[in-house]
Task: structure prediction
Amino acid sequence: QYRAAIFDLDGVIADTARFHFVAWQRLAKEEGFAIPHVVDDRVKGVDRMASLNIVLEYTDRGYSQAEKDALAARKNGYYVELIKALTPADLLPGAGEVLHTLRAAKVPVGLASASKNAVPVLQALGVLDDFDYIVDAATVTNGKPDPEIFLKAAHALGVDPSLCVGFEDAPAGVTSILSAGMFAVGIGEKDLLADAHEVFPSLADVSLARYFQL
Ligand code: G6P
Ligand code: MG
Result:
């Protein structure tokens, strides 16, 4: 039996991956180039600046670090604008139920998201209070696939990493969970998340009783 659950946000709890992509698309278009759809998957779990560097692979133009900072801030402005429309209806299937079941069973719940917008997103979805600890992405030195963010969450929850289950939709996130020594549950497509211990299409397909004392 495991003792704590640690969730990624975008693509696991919140249907926000599409907003990240739309914001990057708008930025690229304004800069005079187009990004292919694979960027949607490539930026999943990847922090803001690293995501920008992926986006900039699709243009020949070089940007200074100051210019990149401005581009990242501009993209974030577009993203923040888009997430203003979020409501509890944007919780991904099963997310609300899973969080409430864990709460009722007194299983500690953490959030390990690379997003600096995690708190307002959780607030808009109406599930902020369902988390015992939210890692502040600004304090993470090494992003996913490094285990740092999942280890920070486990430490704050006071649970040994080997007794934690991590939930992720991105390959980099699954690697982060595995390197942290946790049980990895992939949410999404099996071929994309082949390294995870188990993969389910959505949280609605996860049977919590297999991992936790409910
Ligand atoms: C999540 C998303 C990434 C995003 C990152 C940073 O990990 O999956 O696509 O780049 O958060 O988000 P932020 O809101 O801080 O720009
Ligand atoms: Mg994700």
